[in-house]
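Sample 3 of the quickstart, ligand threonylcarbamoyladenylate:
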Amino acid sequence: MFDPAIDRAADDLKQGRLVIMPTETVYGLAADASNAAAVAAIYQAKGRPSFNPLIAHVADLDAARAIAVLDERAERLADAFWPGPLTIVAPIRDTSAVCDLARAGLDTVAVRVPAHPVALALIKAFGGAVAAPSANRSGRPSPTTLADAMDETGAFAAEGLQGGACQIGLESTVIGLVGQPLWLRAGGAPRERIETLIGPLGDAGADARRTPGRLVAHYAPDAPVRLNAKGPEPGEAYLSFGAGEETAPGRFSLSETGDLSQAAQRLFSLLRTADRLGPSAIAVAPIPEHDLGEAINDRLSRAAGKVG
Ligand code: TXA
Ligand code: MG
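Result:
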């Protein structure tokens, strides 16, 4: 398929420029993973500390095997989830494909095959690994539409590729497969399915070397966030979950039917919408902790400043 926008964006990547790339999880700010100068421009655009490494996006499992050492557990997860919202951290194999800066100097690499057709077309047209963090400025909610991504870091990108509203709406789940399997970040792939495939996951906890991302405050709108709210106080915006909630100005539903996938899909964009009203706080209804609820609650507690 010849698509001039994708061809142009692939050429931008080859020339060391940044591109806003849609994925099924969130929009990313993409660069050639092998090009240290281009990767440095990502850290600068995001205001991201350079100890927090980036995910290398590749087109398929073979390309992942070429850059990372994937063991039998990794193969099983890749088989079940790729293309899709799972990132695997594994020992690095090809240090030239994903430069030191993209890995924050670690001897491991985070790899993922995204499921969005525009992302896959871009990666294939480019022909190498694409480093892409979420396209927000560091510490802000991830963008789930091109317009939100352009607002955040568009000024630093040569091109923004349109991919519609992200289907999943939360970042990928990150699993560590260097030694004992570790749960590094809740995300679009639920824990229950992963543990069925490879057994119980350890918690990386406070080991900053393994979970550099946890040191960074995350996902915060400008307004304070109040969790487990039964309803809004005067002056607050409110995100409800489940049936029987009226919509009114300043009140938004994460899912009228109590569907966790729908709530994940809407979460970041409703946080942004509510934030634009300039409320005294954004109150959020309780969200059940199973399936995608774990990742939703992780993002909400970070937004509320309770973690990280
Ligand atoms: O869904 C996603 O994962 C999106 C889209 C664009 O693919 N990307 C994304 O990237 O969320 P970012 O940079 O915002 O988050 C990457 C996470 C961070 O928490 C980082 O610390 C962790 O992955 N990570 C990356 N490389 C790692 C490594 N070698 N060891 C441990 N954690 C790593
Ligand atoms: Mg991010």
